[in-house]
Design goal:
The chain is mostly helical and 262 residues long. It contains 11 helices and 2 strands.
């Protein structure tokens, strides 16, 4: 427990100032976060067939372009231009012909998938912060409140397992407690820092809290399929970068998807 608290304190000392300041420093921090997450997903391949170092490097280049494309072009507000996606397709898929047995099509689609996944989500992290500190606090507050309440309430009162094969410690009782806390707390944060209260915000926040929990289970399934407990041990007591931002990734993706139709 002591190790876990120290790790959380160190992470907060780094993250809070970057979130508050925003701008270049926040974007740089997000970029570093993405690279660490990229390494964690690349390391999963070591137990199978290692990817060629040149292709890993190409993935880093594509990931960087995806994350920081807002600084390169203002052509799209969402920060994901067709030109960069096409470049990623060419750079990560076409070399399968050259590397042949060392770089299969399955490897290529894996590398492309994790690059687009991390590039898109981290680009949206930056976009959310650029739209305002209040919005970012709202989006990051939902998974934090949801996960915290689910853990505490589930540990104290949980009896019915939610997905025992994927995450044996999660319960339905904890999940509903997390949904309640994430929704109520998220609505309060929105009303204080983002905009005026509206009944639609309750529904939106409840959806984001639910999707965040599903995203958490999705990332847990990746770990179970690869027979690992955590993505890495970069944060002692907490695991890896992806262990900490799994819910936030899906909350952010869902928010901007919903915003496209409002």
């Amino acid at each position: 427990m002591k190790t876990r608290l120290i790790s959380a304190a160190v992470a907060a000392l780094i993250a809070v100032p970057l979130i508050y300041v925003g701008g270049f420093y926040f974007s740089f921090g997000v970029g570093l976060l993405a690279m660490l997450g990229y390494k964690e997903l690349i390391d999963l391949r070591k137990s199978h067939q290692p990817l060629p170092k040149l292709m890993i490097f190409f993935g880093v280049v594509c990931l960087t372009l995806l994350i920081f494309q807002n600084f390169l072009s203002a052509s799209t507000e969402s920060g994901l231009s067709y030109q960069i996606v096409i470049l990623c397709l060419i750079a990560l898929l076409m070399p399968t012909v050259y590397f042949q047995d060392k770089y299969s099509t399955k490897d290529a689609f894996y590398l492309l998938g994790i690059t687009l996944f991390l590039g898109l989500t981290c680009n949206l992290f930056i976009l959310a912060r650029n739209r305002g500190l209040g919005l970012f606090l709202y989006l990051i507050g939902i998974p934090i409140l949801t996960d915290t309440a689910a853990f505490i309430f589930g540990k104290a009162f949980g009896k019915n397992k939610l997905c025992p094969k994927i995450s044996p410690n999660k319960t339905w009782e904890g999940s509903f407690a997390g949904l309640f806390a994430g929704t109520i707390g998220g609505v309060v944060i929105y009303s204080l820092f983002v905009g005026k209260f509206a009944w639609q915000i309750i529904l939106l926040t409840a959806i984001l809290s639910t999707i965040g929990q599903i995203g958490d289970l999705f990332m847990s399934k990746i770990k179970r399929e690869n027979e690992i407990k955590d993505f890495s041990n970069i944060m002692p007591g907490h695991g890896g970068i992806l262990d900490r931002i799994d819910s936030f990734i899906f909350v952010c993706l869902t928010y901007f998807l919903v915003m496209l139709y409002l």
